[in-house]
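hey so i finally got around to running the thing on that chain from the lab meeting. sorry it took forever, my laptop kept dying and i had to restart like 3 times. anyway pasting the input first so we r on the same page abt which one it is
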Amino acid sequence: MKDKEFIIKEFEDLLNLLRERPDYLEKLRVLILTKELLELPMKFEEFRNEVNRRFDEVDKRFEKVDKRFEESDRK
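ok and heres what got predicted. didnt touch it at all, straight out
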């Protein structure tokens, strides 16, 4: 199947083309953005997961400290 021919006279034509053809948009994105920017969503997700893991650890430690205080208060 042959690609449809597009004529771009104005900037809005280009925007419309990119809306119609997400594959073109992705190719343009790869061309314009640096590797670091393209990897940013994945790196942010990794960062978010690590932060959540650490907060979970801190929560567990605080629970232990709370229990110790409760036990100490009972004495």
